[in-house]
Amino acid sequence: MYRSFTAFLGCVKQPISYNYQCRSELAQRSYTVLRNCVHNNAGFSSGVTDVLRTNVSDKECMSSVANEQKDFKRLKETNYNRNFKEKISESNTLPNELFSDNNSDKFGTLSSESLLRKRLETVAEEEDDEEFTEFIDGKEGKTRLRQIEYAKLVKKLLNEKKLVEAVDVLETRMKTEKAKPDEFIFRLLISGCAKVGYTKKAFKLFNQMKKRGLKVKGGIYTSLFDACARSPWPEDGLKRASALWDLMIEKRVDINQRIAHAAIKAFGRCGDIERAFRIADEIVTLEIPFTSETINFLLQACASDKEAGFRHALMIWRKMLDRKITPTIFTYNLLLRCARDCSVGNLDKFREDLSSFIPSTQMDLLKLPAPNEEIEETDRDVPVQIEKSVTSDSFLPCLLSEKPHLGSVIHLKNISKSWHRLMLMGGQGGFIQMMINNGVKPDIKTFNQLLFTIAPDPQEENLLLTEMKRLNVKVDLDFYNMLIKKRNMHGRYEDAKDVLKMIREEQFTPNIVTFGVLALGCTNFKSTKTLLSDLKSFGLRLNVEILGTLLNSACRNWDFKTINFLVKLLIKTKIKPNLKFIQHLDNLNEEISKHIQIKNEGRTAYNNKLDFSNIDNELEDFKQLITHVKSLEVEDASKFHPWDQFRR
Question: At what angle do helices 218-229 and 234-251 cross, to 10 degrees?
Answer without folding.
Answer: 160
